[in-house]
Design brief:
mainly alpha, Recoverin, domain 1, two-stranded antiparallel sheet, muscle protein, repeat
Amino acid sequence: MAMSSILNTDDIKKALDAFAVADSFDHKKFFELVGLKSKSADDVKKVFTVLDADNSGFIEEEELKFVLKGFAKDGRDLTDKETKAFLKAADKDGDGKIGVDGKRNTNTSNYSIILNKGPHIKNPKTQMAGFF
């Protein structure tokens, strides 16, 4: 699935352009510029799935470095400093990854987005509020 099928292509370009310079990336501003804040919980899950390159249910540090390429092929790589800052902001339990819970909750067939490493929830946008 292409990110442009979920988010507006012009918004993606504006966001990438805003953070084209190394060490300028701010994940909260970036997600706001691409319009992620106004998207449904289902769309947020779709965006996450696109960014999870190895389909592990998590975005590890190695994948996070290339997160802008998930929005557009010409997106730049994040610097090590940006990658570590982004991971630190999203990884509340210190396991080195953020993501969609790779396990199904035994009481539901829904997956939960656990970007702030909280309990299973039904609305991933609520869980992601501190993330973007």
